[in-house]
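Quick one, T. Sequence first:
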Amino acid sequence: MRTEILTGDALSGALDDLAHLRIRVFRDWPYLYDGTADYERTYLKAYERALQAIVIGIYDQDELVGASTGAPLAEHADDFFQAFDGTDIKIDKMFYCGESLLLPRYRGQGIGHQFFDQREAFARDLGFEQICFAAVVRPADHPLRPHDYQPLDGFWHKRGYDRLHGAVAHFSWKDIDQAAETEKPLQMWGRDL
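Structure tokens:
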């Protein structure tokens, strides 16, 4: 396996593979995302447009098996700005960690820590003071919740992240068991750098 830090043209060249990986990984709990290539092309343009975006790619041979994204929060979706209304968080000082994607057979090998380490270092080098990410909130009694599901809260807490009080974003997507898109809350987590 190899790790590649992708920015600029290299990032743009990896977006199709990243879209495919997002559709595969986010189909599982807790996202249950019934993704489409068209939506992915539109969504991922935010990373292509952002001057300070990063993709960390994990490759097995030539296959992208894991990826992690990041960009300044001010260059991301407006819906995230609304999540911070009424808080004292300065959006222009916040770096946003987007996706952390890893195919199941590659989990448990420390790659999740690598993703956070590299994004945090990248954000620090750019002069950001805080870093955040969003996690979808699903009901504990959701019928598609796996019986053996272990939330990642403990992992995030060990890395110094905590829920950002009052900061909840709302995004809509189509779940794998639904006929239409529905809105989901995404709790923002963050920490100082």
